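Lab notebook, bench 4. The sequencing result for the construct came back, and we need a structural model before the next group meeting so we can plan mutations. Quick request posted to the team channel:

Model the 3D structure of this chain.
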Amino acid sequence: QVQLVESGGGLVQPGGSLRLSCAVSAVSGFTFSNYVMRWYRQAPGKERELVAVITDIGGRTNYADSVKGRFLIYRDNRKNTVYLQMNSLKPEDTAVYHCNALRSDSRGNDYRYWGQGTQVTVSS
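Done. Here's the predicted structure in token form:
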């Protein structure tokens, strides 16, 4: 069983910074480096938004236009953890942030796992 636990959310003033963490664990048959990791967020009244993606080996990343230049996704495969560094935070960044892990098997089937989410609130 693959489990994801997010942490690092909280209340921050506009212009401030936060770093979110997503720790991934499994009983057996788990290789963290085989998973593409993603951060999503969802604000009240809005649809879920893909914020950032990092490939299984961590060589490539992708960001939503709304956070590009302010957020950074990176991973530590030895610690089975992916991070989201958030700088220059704006009130519109307020949302519940969820971590997602994705892997594909040799037959092309996709498997997705989700964490419980962590609240980020940007307010003065």
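The chain has a mean pLDDT of 93.
Will bring this to the meeting.
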